[in-house]
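Write out this protein's structure.
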Amino acid sequence: MTTTAVSLGTIETRVGSVELRRGGTGQPIVYLHSAAGEGLGLGFLDDLAQYGEVLAPIFPGFGESEGIEQIDDIEDAVFHLLDLFDRLGLDSPAVVGLSLGGWMAAELACRYPDRVSRLVLVNPAGLYVPGANIHDIFGRTPREMAADLFADQSNPIAQMMLQMDKLVTEGGVGSITFDMIKPQIKAMTASARLGWNPYLHNPKLQGRLWRVTARTLVINGEKDGLIPSAHGETYAREIAGAKLVTMTDVAHMIPLEKPGELAQVTGEFVGN
């Protein structure tokens, strides 16, 4: 299969200019990123663009996207997505969301079910499941986070996180420049506006999932150390007709660990 390159541009929204990755042709597939703000160079998007036109906005506060000061909670996030859909001429696209992006996708699909034709939730946040708490993302070391996010610690991004941890432990905080950590600080600040309290969930969301009418696929990473599998299982149980798939030998960041496999599973589901 030939890879289609996804390129970066911008689009004006009511809250300001936001970055937009775009590529491919055919049915529109919107990708909503995680709290990590995974950006350019995400091979998963290039692979997914073989199945349709991929549109992957960078949420306000991440990257160079503007307007996070106008977004206070998940409801504001949904209205931002609706504005974005309108400006892109998207009536009812397929929506794919990872983690924080999965939460946004689920909120959109249950509040405005006619605006989502297919829904793919990958290791989604958004729910409170007793006895299966989502692990902390705000106060942990890069080494601890790498263990939760990646099944394979030799992954280049995991290795980068481990090197960052080594700089802190061996070189001291003074060895870390602001430019090195600026993207992470921005991402965590934006994520905190949406999911600080209550932590990465909406207490009312589970009771609203019956409203989702989009054909839905939930994908769990077998070795996800951040969001327990019970969360994906709950989504799949509460959304009528939802299908649950568990991908093996992969943790939370499936688009970075198995981009081709995830793109194939997602693209074939969206196309059927």
